[in-house]
Design a protein that fits this description.
It contains 3 helices and 6 strands; from the N terminus they run ββααββαββ. By secondary structure, the protein is α+β, with helices and mostly antiparallel strands. The chain has a single domain, classed as Histidine kinase-like ATPase, C-terminal domain (Heat Shock Protein 90, 2-Layer Sandwich), CATH 3.30.565.10. It has a 6-stranded antiparallel β-sheet with strand order 1-2-3-4-6-5, covered by helices on one side. The chain is globular and about 35 Å long.
Length: 138
């Protein structure tokens, strides 16, 4: 069951999802509901693709019994998204965005479709964040 919070002063929206295959579609639905009116219709598919790639990585590399926390904050001209899970994270390295027999184009797509992105580790959790050009704050 998802738990949603709203920080009205900042416009930040957040939700906690159970890790698992359904988390990807739940994350897309949640983000679509919050991005409506902020993201132009012709950019919405790109935003959903980036969210799918990041949440898929959280499901694939995180704790399958854990949670995935999502947050979306409208900023001046962009939307800041955070995806946090209990996975080990990674160290970017040359060739990290190369594909292999199991996939591997996700971070390449994130790099190409976002303003910028990054990863942090804190208290045993991994947070991948990205900024998506699109909007004005509400």
């Amino acid at each position: 069951m998802a738990t949603t919070t709203n920080a009205s002063r900042t416009g930040r929206q957040s939700v906690v999802l159970a890790a698992g295959a359904i988390a990807v579609s739940d994350a897309r639905a949640w983000l679509a509901s919050h991005a409506s009116g902020l993201v132009e219709a012709d950019r919405l598919a790109s935003l959903m693709l980036v969210m799918s790639e990041i949440v898929t990585n959280a499901v694939r590399h995180g704790d399958p019994r854990g949670e995935i926390r999502l947050a979306a904050t409208p900023k001046d001209g962009y939307l800041c998204i955070q995806v946090t899970d209990a996975g080990p994270g990674f160290v970017p390295r040359p060739g990290a965005m190369a594909s292999d027999e199991y996939g591997g184009f996700g971070l390449f797509l994130v790099e190409r479709l976002t303003r910028r992105w990054g990863m942090t580790r804190e208290n045993g959790r991994t947070r991948v964040w990205f900024e998506f050009d699109c909007c004005s704050p509400s």
